[in-house]
Specification:
heterotrimer, A alpha+beta (about 250), B mainly alpha (about 240), C alpha/beta (about 650), B: about 240 residues, mainly alpha, 3 helical TM bundles of succinate and fumarate reductases, globular, C: about 650 residues, five-stranded parallel β-sheet, binds flavin-adenine dinucleotide, binds protoporphyrin IX containing FE, binds FE2/S2 (inorganic) cluster
Chain lengths: ~250, ~240, ~650
Amino acid sequence: MSKEMTIHLKYWKQNGPNDTGHFEEYTLDNVNEHMSFLEMLDVLNEELMLEDKEPVEFDYDCREGICGSCNLVINGQAHGPKQRVAVCQLHMRNYNDGDHVTIEPPRAAAFPVIKDLVVDRSSFDRIIEAGGYVSVKTGSAVEANAIPIEKEKSDAAFDYATCIGCGACVAACPNASASLFTGAKIAHLNKLPQGEVERSNRVVAMVEQMEEEGFGDCSNFAECEAVCPVGISISAIAEMRKDYMKAVVSGE
Amino acid sequence: MPSLIKALNSQVGRKFMTGITGIGLMLFLIGHLAGNLTIFGESQAFNVYTHTLESLGPLLYVIEAGLVFFFLYHAILGISIWRQKKKARPEGYDTYQTKGGPSHQSLASRSMIISGTVLLVFLVFHIMHFKYGLFSPDEGTVILESAGGVEARDLRALVIAEFQNPLIAFGYIAVMALAILHLAHGAWSAFTSLGMKHGETSKKVQLGAYIFAIVLMLGFIFIPLYIFLTGGEGSLIAY
Amino acid sequence: MKFDSKVPGGPLEEKWDKHLKDINLVSPNNKRKYEIIVVGTGLAGGAAAASFAELGYNVRSFCIQDSARRAHSIAAQGGINAAKNYPNDGDSIWRLFYDTIKGGDYRSRESNVYRLSQVSNEIIDQAVAQGVPFAREYGGNLANRSFGGAQVSRTFYARGQTGQQLLLGAYQAMMRQVHKGNIKYHPRHEMLDVVVIDGQARGIITRDLVSGELCRYEADAVVLATGGYGNVFYLSTNAKNSNVTAAWRAHKRGAAFANPCYVQVHPTCIPVSGDYQSKLTLMSESLRNDGRVWVPKEKEDDRHPNEIPEEERYYYLEERYPAFGNLVPRDVASRNAKMVCDDGLGVGETGLAVYLDFRDAIDRDGKDAISAKYGNLFDMYENITGENPYERPMRIYPAVHYTMGGLWVDYNLETTIPGLYAAGEANFSDHGANRLGASALMQGLSDGYFVLPYTIGDYLAKQEPGKRYGTDHDAFQEAENEAQAQIDKLLNIDGNRTIVDFHRTLGKIVWDKIGIARNEEGLKQAIEEIRELREEFWQNVKVPGEKNNYNKYLEFAGRVADFFELAELMAEDALNREESAGCHLREEYQTDEGEALRNDEEYSYVSAWEYKGLNGKLEETLHKENLEFEFVELKQRSYK
Ligand SMILES: Cc1cc2nc3c(=O)[nH]c(=O)nc-3n(C[C@H](O)[C@H](O)[C@H](O)COP(=O)(O)OP(=O)(O)OC[C@H]3O[C@@H](n4cnc5c(N)ncnc54)[C@H](O)[C@@H]3O)c2cc1C
Ligand code: HEM
Ligand code: SF4
Ligand code: FES
C-alpha cells in the first residue's frame, strides 16, 4: 500500500507584478507518495479553497514534461531535486515524511512575476522572434529527401531541439542568463543545412535580443545543464559563441 | 553585422574577451613565476633577471602597458558581468542550492569576483611594493658581474628581507591561495568562453585547470614560504 | 440550417485540384486589407496563422498558454503519416486514403480524406525545410516506421517527440511573422465568444488571462483551431488547459457540432493511482509490439504477477484475436481491457488495470535489446509509478485520448456560420468514428498549411475589403455582456464544492456511461445525472479569487460549465446512434463475438447538432449529412 506523508510547505504569494510578495506556510497531511508534485499543490489548493483561503497560482499544462509551462524552484533547485525531470514529472516519493519544502517562482528581471508562482516568460518568445526560425514560406519547400543529412548531424541537432522552453536554466543560473535556451535554438538550426543560410544573422540577432531582455551574462557555471529537464548540454552555449564570433569576424 | 566594438561588448563578446585576457594573464603568470624562481639560482641570477627587464627601456613600457591593459580590461569585464548579474536578478532566492551533476558551481566559480578583486588590490600593492620599493627601506645596489659589471637595484635582497616579515610573507601566501581558486575555475572557463564544447575534452581541461592552478600557485607560494621558514638562509638560496 | 458540404464533383483524384482552380483569389494588394483571427496555436492554428501572414493577410493569433509553443500538440509522441512511400513497400495516396476511411469505420467524407492523403507529402517537405529533425537512416534519408497496426511504414517521427518538433516548426514560422508585424500575437488570452453580425463571423471576445480584462477584436474571418474536448472526462491524456469552450460557444452562436459521441480511447496509458490524479499519461502504442497483455484467470488474485504461473494467466487478446493478438486496433484493445476489468479480473490497487508483460520478450531478445527499443518509455513508467518494468509487468489501462467529433465543417473547413472556420482536432472532419495513429498531426498541419490558406481566400474575396462595423457594434456589446455575466455569476455563487470536485464527478459519469461502451439505459441515466449535477454546479460551486487578476480557477470554472453542456449532447448523440461504429460501441449492437456492428443502411451519416437553447435541459436539433461512398466499398472490420 502506498505511503502517506506530512509535508510542511512554504510558498511564495504575490498578488501581482507590483505587489512586494511574501511567503505563506501550510502543512499538508496525507500526501500520497504516488502524487506528482503538482498534484500535491492541487490538493493544497483544494484545502485552501475549502477553508476560504486564496489558492496559490502556478503554471502548468501538459503535466508530461514536454510543454515547458511548469517551472517552480523547490528548495532552491529549479524543477526540484531530481535531474532531467520537469516538476510536473516529479513524484512525492522523492520526499520524506515531515520534510520542509520551499517553493519559489523563477526569479529574474526578464521573468517578472504575474501572480504567486506564475511568471511572464514572453522574453523567450521575443528571442525566438529575433531569428529562431528558418525563413521558408509554406509551399516553397523542396522534396524532403532532396538534401540528405548525416544521421549524426541530425541527431545532434535534435539534442538541441528538444528544449522545452521552461526557463529553468535562467532560474537556476546564478547570473540569470538565458544562454542555454538561446544557444540551444541557435545550435539546433545552425547545425542543419536548412538553417545554414541564415546562421550569421540568426546568431547575432538572437544574442542581441537576449541581452536586450535583461538576462545576465554566462559565467560558465553550467548549473543550467544540471537543472535542464531535457539535459541540453552547455555545448549549445559554446556553439553559440563560436557562431557569433565567426559571424563577426567574417562580417557576413 | 555589428561593429567589432559592439560585438566585443555583447554578452558573447564580453566573455570571449574575459577568456582571452584571462589566458593572457595566465601566460604572464607562468613567465612571472619562471622569473621569480631564479631567486633560487646562482647568487645574482634574480638581479640579472630584474635588471634585464628594467633595461628593456621603451619596450618594457609597451609590455607593461599591454599588461595593465589586459589586467584592467579583464577586471572591468569581470566587474561588469558581476554587476549585470545583480541587475538580472534583483530579488534573490530565499533558499538556493546547486543540483550538482554536470554543474560547475563551486566555491571557486562562485567567488571569482572576490578572488579577482583581491588580486586587483593586491596587484596595486605588489607593484608599489617591489617595483617602486615603497613601504620598505631603500634597497641597496649591487654590481652585476655577469651583466658586464653594471650597477643595479638589489631586489633580491629586498625580496629576501621582506619575506622574513610574517605579515608580508603570509599575506602573499594568502593571496596566492585565493588565486588558486580564481584559476581553478578560470583556466577551464576561459576555454569554454572561447567555444570549447562540453564533453570528454572539457572534463580533461577542468582537471588540467585544477592541476595547473595548484602547481602554478604552489610555485608562487613556495618562495615566500621558504624564505620565511629558513630566515632567508636555506640551502636553496646561494650567496 | 442548411448543410452543403460543398464537395466538388469529378473523380476523387481531381476534386482538390479542380476546386483550387475554381475558387476565388484575393489580389495581393487587397490581402493587406483583410484581417483574420486565428484562435489556437497548436499544429492547426500555428500553421494557419503563419501561412496567412506569409500570404499577406493581417493576422491575430490567440492562445491560452503563455506561449504559442506550449499548445497541446507539443505532447504528441508517436509520429505523423504521409504517403511518401520512401520504403517502397506499396504505399500510395490511395492506400493512405483507404486506410483512413476504413480505420474511421466508414463514417468520414471521402473527398476530405482523399485531400488529406494528397497533401500529406507536402507537410513532410515543409517540416523538413523548417529544420524539423526527423529521424534519419545512416544514408542520410528520412526514416519511417509502421504505426498503429498499419501494414506499411509511412510514419515519420522525431524520437518520441514528433508533436513537439512539428509544433516548434510551426511556432517558429509564426514568430517570424510576429517579428515582421504581420501577426499580432496574444498569448494568455482565452476566447469566450464569437461575434456574429448579419449572419457572418466578425470577431471574438477574449479574456486577457493576466489582467482579467474582457477584450473585443474585429476581423473579416475567424478560425477556431482550439483542439479537442477530451477533458470532458476530467481524466484524459490531454493537456490540462485543453477545453471545448471556444467550439462550444461558437456552437451556441449557430455553428453545428458534429458527431460529439466519437471519442477515442487509447489502450496503453498508465492507470489511475488515486483521487488526487489530475491527468493520465500515455505510453506509446509501440509497446504492444513486444509486450503481452494479460490478467489473472482468478478474480482478486493478489499474488505478485511473477508468481502467477503461466496456466493461470489469461492472455485475452491473443486468445480472442489469434490473427492480430496484442496488436489489435486501439478501440478493440481498449474495449477488451474494460471488459476483463468489469469481470473483476483487473489488477493493482484499484482493480482497473491489466498487465503488459515484457518477460517473454526479455527472455527472447535480452534486456539490452528491449531497453534499446523502449528504454525511455520504461524510464518514464518507472518515474511515474515507482515500479521497474524490466522486473515486474507494467500495469496499463485505457484512457481518453482524442475526440473525432467537433465543429461541423464543409469541404472548405467552414462551419455553418459563414466566415467561421474550424481546423485541427476542433473540427469533425477526416477521422470518422475512429482515428488512426499518427493521423492527427497530419490533419492539423494539412488544415493549417495547405487547406485553409486557399479556402479562406475564396470567402474573403467575396467580402468588401476593409469593411468594419467597429467594436462598439451591438453584437460586440452583447457578447461581452454575456461573457461578463457568466464570470460574475460564477464568482458570486460562493458555494461549497470546488470546481475540481464537480469536474471529477462529471468526468466519472461520462467515463462510466459515455465511455468505452455505451447502452441505452446508461445513456439515459447519464443525461439525468449530468443535468442534476449541472444544476448543482450553478448553485454550489466555489470559485475563488478576483475577476480582474490572474485566476486559473475562474478560467477552469468557465470551461467546466461548457463541459457540462457538451456532456449532455454527447449522451444525446450516442443515444441517437443506434449502431456501433469505430469508437462508438453500443452494447446492443454487437456481433455474437462481441464486435462492433455497423448499420450502414440507417446511420451512414454525420450527426450535426444545432443548438436551440438550454432550459434545465439542452435543446438541440439533429441534422444529417449523408455520407456517400462512391469510391470505396463498405466492409465490416474484422481483426479475428
Ligand atoms: C499524449 C498524446 C499523444 C499524441 N500522439 C499523437 C501522435 O503521435 N500522432 C498524431 O498524429 N496525433 C497524436 N495525438 C493527437 C494530436 O496531438 C492532437 O490531436 C493535435 O495535436 C491537435 O492539434 P490542434 O492544433 O488541433 O489543437 P491543440 O494542439 O490542442 O491546440 C489548441 C490550441 O487552442 C488554444 N485554445 C483552446 N481553447 C482556446 C480558447 N478558448 N481561447 C484561446 N485559445 C484557445 C490552445 O491554447 C492551443 O493553442 C496525441 C495526443 C495526445 C494527447
Ligand atoms: C593574474 C591575474 C588574473 C588571472 C590570471 C585571471 C584569470 C582569469 C581567467 C582565466 C578567467 C576565466 C575567463 C572566462 O571565464 O572566460 C577569469 C575570470 C574572471 N576574472 Fe580573472 N584573472 C585575473 C585577475 C582578475 C582580476 C584582477 C579581476 C578583478 C575583478 C578578475 C575578475 C574575474 C572575474 C569576475 C571572472 C569571472 C568572469 C565571469 O563571471 O564570467 N580577475 N580570470
Ligand atoms: S535549455 Fe533546458 S532548462 Fe533551459 S529552457 Fe530549454 S529545456 Fe528549459
Ligand atoms: S506541465 Fe508541461 S512540462 Fe510540466
